Backbone:
């Protein structure tokens, strides 16, 4: 079984980082994993996307046209990629920047005001972690405790950010449950 | 040390250090600049030399000098940068110096683009620089294999006193995968006292060593070329490496593909198998020496009707595949080289198309 998660948004929204944290968590759980950035002539404020492939056997193609899940942090990302998601997948929609739904009846829209929740947690920049936590809590793609541990490790050099980051994860988890 | 998540480019840097290479000279170019970024930090930590040259031309001759003095040395670059180094690569091969080159290919020709490509196959396997020389060319398909091949490249370069090239593409450099390095930090360098200009006092020897590529006497030059040829023939006998996938059944099509492209093909082979169509995949891990015999044998499989070379170029490796197959089966080519890597679905369509009218 293989799952692909596409992270998409503006450059600067922490797309590559949240994807890396998911990849790390999957590795910690013993899965095969590949993290594939959309490297290209992108600019700050332009689009950024990144795909994480998680599997139980060596991963073949790193070229993924149809991911199982999508985390859309801005409207252009949803409009561009909603149609590519495989039926049965989850599309996380950042409600603060995206006033529309996926328009699909064969996927689950997980609508979360990730910017508001990040601000409540103490820092707007943690919006990527809110979205990641909500997605992980809903999909169960990796264990939530492992996710927490990987976030701690990622920010080990910046211990002052830990309370905000943990609060952001908790906000995301609750949003997915509610 | 367990598995850690690393970009291919970072793994190249770490693997070189663990292979005991403490000299890195380079000039930055996308999509491999993370190697320089990584080693700018790591080399000082291990007492090594990180040196950014003023150009790739200069870097090529810095490599020549350091290798001539008996140091383990390597560089990384991408296509246009390798073109600039190609003069020095010819001199390095002529002077029989062990240097490791990594080419993380981007789209070409010219400045091309910065996305993945395999358009430097000819350059790597057939020349680049002038004269009768070959590089030993290794083509990894994952971050783990990239690290292993970098570590393998240094002893191979010293065994043959010949430059070795790791040929990857932008995706190999940019993607992250789990990678595990062996525990030991160094492989012992070979004894270079017989040829390196490391100083007579250092060697405790009265013998003068001379590193050169100029042979004005026709007989001497011919002998020098015969000597080089004997090394390339030995590589052909001893260093051919490839991976066979789904080649033990009754496959109807044989795909030959390397690097990132081979992973896409592997997924296509799995998907086609699920549909009931058996397809074999042979992945060359060495591009020079090329697995000619293995491909010929696989092409001769009882159910095999066609062979196809699938590559991110306009048909380069296919010439070697044709040379291997020797006309016993039709040989086809499919590829793209703008940076848009073909998907498994495209590969599946192409393979089905080869059998159309026959199903």
Residues:
């Amino acid at each position: 079984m293989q799952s692909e998660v596409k992270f998409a948004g503006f450059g600067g929204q922490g797309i590559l980082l949240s994807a890396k944290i998911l990849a790390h968590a999957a590795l910690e759980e013993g899965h095969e994993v590949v993290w594939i950035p959309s490297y290209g002539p992108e600019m700050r404020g332009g689009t950024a996307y990144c795909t994480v492939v998680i599997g139980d056997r060596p991963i073949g193609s790193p070229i993924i046209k149809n991911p199982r899940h999508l985390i859309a942090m801005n409207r252009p990302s949803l409009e561009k990629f909603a149609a590519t998601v495989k039926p049965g997948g989850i599309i996380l929609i950042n409600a603060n920047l995206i006033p529309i739904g996926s328009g699909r009846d064969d996927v689950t829209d997980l609508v979360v005001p990730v910017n508001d929740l990040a601000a409540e947690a103490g820092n707007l920049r943690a919006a990527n972690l809110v979205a990641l936590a909500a997605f992980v809590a809903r999909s169960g793609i990796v264990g939530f405790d492992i996710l927490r541990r990987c976030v701690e490790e990622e920010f080990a050099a910046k211990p002052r950010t830990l309370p905000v980051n943990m609060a952001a994860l908790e906000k995301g988890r609750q949003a997915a449950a509610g | 040390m367990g598995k850690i998540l690393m970009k291919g480019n970072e793994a190249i840097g770490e693997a070189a250090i663990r292979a005991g290479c403490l000299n890195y000279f380079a000039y930055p170019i996308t999509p491999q600049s993370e190697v320089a970024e990584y080693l700018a930090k790591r080399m000082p930590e291990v007492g090594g030399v990180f040196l950014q040259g003023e150009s790739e031309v200069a870097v090529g001759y810095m490599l020549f000098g350091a290798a001539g003095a008996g140091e383990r040395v390597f560089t990384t670059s991408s296509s246009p940068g390798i073109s600039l180094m190609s003069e020095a690569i010819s001199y390095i091969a002529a002077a029989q110096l062990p240097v490791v080159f990594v080419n993380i290919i981007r789209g070409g020709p010219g400045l091309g683009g910065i996305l993945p490509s395999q358009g430097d196959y000819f350059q790597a396997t057939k020349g680049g620089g002038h004269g009768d020389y070959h590089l030993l060319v290794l083509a990894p398909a994952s971050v783990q294999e990239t690290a292993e091949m970098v570590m393998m490249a240094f002893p191979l370069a010293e065994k043959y006193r010949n430059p070795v090239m790791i040929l990857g593409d932008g995706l190999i450099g940019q993607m992250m995968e789990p990678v595990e390095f062996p525990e030991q930090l160094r492989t012992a360098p070979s004894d270079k006292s017989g040829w390196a200009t490391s100083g007579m006092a250092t060697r405790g020897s009265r013998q003068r060593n001379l590193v050169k590529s100029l042979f004005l006497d026709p007989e001497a030059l011919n002998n020098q070329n015969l000597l080089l040829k004997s090394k390339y023939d030995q590589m052909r006998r001893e260093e051919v490496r490839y991976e066979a996938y789904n080649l033990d059944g009754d496959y109807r099509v044989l795909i030959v593909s390397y690097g990132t492209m081979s992973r896409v093909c592997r997924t296509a082979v799995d998907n086609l198998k699920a549909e009931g169509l058996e397809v074999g995949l042979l992945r060359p891990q060495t591009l020079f020496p090329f697995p000619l015999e293995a491909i010929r044998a696989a092409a001769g499989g009882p159910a095999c009707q066609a062979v196809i070379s699938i590559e991110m170029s306009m048909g380069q490796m296919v010439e070697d595949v044709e040379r291997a197959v020797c006309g016993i089966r039709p040989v086809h080519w499919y590829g793209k080289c703008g940076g848009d890597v073909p998907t498994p679905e495209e590969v599946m369509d192409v393979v089905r198309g080869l059998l159309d009218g026959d199903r």
Observations:
- Residues 2-177 of chain A form a domain with the Pyruvate-ferredoxin Oxidoreductase; domain 3 fold (CATH 3.40.920.10).
- The longest strand of chain A covers residues 2-10.
- Residues 6 and 23 of chain A are 12 Å apart (CA to CA).
- The interface with chain B takes residues 20, 23-24, 27, 32-37, 39-41, 58-63, 65 of chain A (CB under 8 Å).
